[in-house]
Amino acid sequence: MLFNSLDYLVFLPAVVCLYFCCPQRLRWALLLGASYLFYAAWRVEYLVLIITSTLVDYGAGLAMGRSETRRPRRKWLWLSLAVNLGLLFVFKYANFASESARVVSERLGLWIDFPTLQVLLPVGISFYTFQTLSYSIDVYRGDREPERHLGRFAVYVAFFPQLVAGPIERSLRLLPQFGERHSFDWSRLKGGLWLILWGFFKKLVVADQAGLYVDAVYADPDAHGGLAQLAASYLFAFQLYCDFSGYSDIAIGSAQMLGFRLMENFRRPYVAQTVQDFWRRWHVSLSTWFRDYVYVPLGGSRGTTARWAVAIAVVFLASGLWHGANWTFVVWGALHAVYVFCGAATANSRKRFTARLPAAVARCLPFCRAAFVFHLWVFSLIFFRSPSLADALNYLQGIVADGGWSLAVLLAGFSPVEWCAIAVAPLVLTALELWQGDRGWLPFTASRTFAVRLAFGVGLFFVILLLGPMDSQQFIYFQF
Length: 480
Fold this sequence. Notes:
Helix content is 70%, strand content 0%. The longest helix is centred in the first third of the chain and has 38 residues, at 70-107. The mean pLDDT is 85. The chain folds into two domains: 6-184, no CATH class; 188-479, no CATH class. The chain is mostly helical.
């Protein structure tokens, strides 16, 4: 079930109403049933995978809780890792591994026909797999007691607002909330509706409209000039951000209407002034997951420089593979590792250089740094968006090749209204987020004047109706 569908606009209010009418002792059952129904609307048979992960990690957690030493707990942790990562490998990476092995064997002169699986990638498997793994690792470390209520644990794994595209919640934060008593709160309901409305604006007006142009250019880059390909690269950066952060806003708002608090997943990433800062702002739930469960155990910044470099490389390569079973994602992850290495190597030189700059020039540095980091991100997204490495290199060649920098070619195929949404909406979004700053929400909604809030809400609603595509477009991160 898509958030941007009529089904969800009926489903969510129904669940909210039933939840607050339901006795406290049965609310977990209502949420579990609603979550399974939400997922089954896409493909009912893949509920078996979620239930399998739930039962394995629930049982492993109880077994680790009964063990007094780490050695027996380690066996149960390995069981959890084997089952969850095994399912993830079979459905997401088996064909990638088979195809890569076939290519290598051909290069060696060996013609081996490696088998492939004809299976559909389960929506959200990367997200709920990492969520359940964090629970098992936390229990193994002794950071939390195992959850003994199977129903509440099952809801934690399958909670519908964040089931298919996050945020990837930790059991220490989300799981206890299913035992809390949530009373109806009108202000909380309004806050959730504001987030949902803003998420729809990001998704329907900015992401989906930008996607019309991005998809057309990437589908046939040779038919478009260098200027069109460059414009599509910038627009994809806004499409990806608004698509994913829009999903997160709708997820957080939906959970908030029910009384649950999900973590913030995006913190204005396009104002980041370093690559490291960017990853503290972009997909925060995944970045902190890799930090706590991969980077820190590998030594992080506590060991030698070589150990730190290995940890950074592993994290970004793993992050690339997490996003998809394709060498384009590996290159995308490797690029960001290189960015971090170069940033660390030049840190002292950049400090000495900026210290000598005149005050008037120094005041422009934050903008220049943010622009530089943004362009590094846009460059990496060409690999992220391209179907293959050959396509990515061909796309880059098309941007820098002579010719094709015609404004007529750039504007071809779209009406003035569509170009208004494609070009103006990202600028409006950027202005609003810069105005928002770190205040946590848009100033319009915090206004004490009812007329201001009403005008903003009604205006946003009609912009969504006028400029949002009528057909429901799947969220980009559903494929991961």
